[in-house]
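Example record

The entry below shows one chain as it appears in the dataset: sequence first, then structure tokens.
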Amino acid sequence: MGVRSNQKLLVHDAPQIRNHVGFEKASHCLKVHIAEKLILESCSRKGSFCESGDVTWYIREFGRELKRHGDVFTGRRVQPLRAALLLLANLHFSSALPLNSSDCEHIRAGGGAMSAMYLLSQLEFLFRKKSRYLKEDGTIKRPIPVTLCVKAGLNNGKRPKKPISNGRINNIDQALVLYLYRNNQLPAKRLKILEEKLLRCKTTFFAIASDACAIRNTINGHCILGIAGRLKTVRHPVMHGALPDPSSEAMFFGLLIAIFYYGERTPS
């Protein structure tokens, strides 16, 4: 499946993935591939989103299919995550509904922001949980090599004299860099493949990179940042209230979580 441009994606007779793929019968590997394709097509730029219905279809089916698995998608974590995905799948982008609109209409119009916040927090948890260097709460559980400290921008960006073995990582971009470093788990491998595809995509501003501060190229004066840099720009504004509506990023977060979920279920 090739990546379609926005012009091809939005024409009335554009082929739809959902018309050719039965989600329930698709392999986990194919679902990972579709999630990657949808990121490339529909939400590769921060703050923008464009689709013909396939992303909404994918998020809805993912939410319906989500169940307990492994050591991450367990217990009471599953239902809120499913709810966030299904709320996102039923989202109506609008910020000016009449006051007399129904409760459901108001929820659908503004629910994307709530979904984005929860999905972003769960991404950060995934990066920590699956990292060799961090505990679930972000505290360091094994010494972080000097090279990796520099790569992740730890120690206030200064090269430490020795590995860092204590403290807490509170930034999602740094947690991602620690997660990806020399990681052979399938979800990490797929993220690295996605990075290469994004970097080759001339219409893409943002790409997944293993360096929190990487600036790989520029297109029309716009810097290409890694996913860590993208998450860094939205994490604090979203969680501290400065960004009033992060709905446009929610689909991106949901697709990244799908890569984790189905990647873990795919045989290596």
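Notes for this example: Strands lie at 215-219, 222-225. Confidence is low (pLDDT under 50) at residues 203-223.
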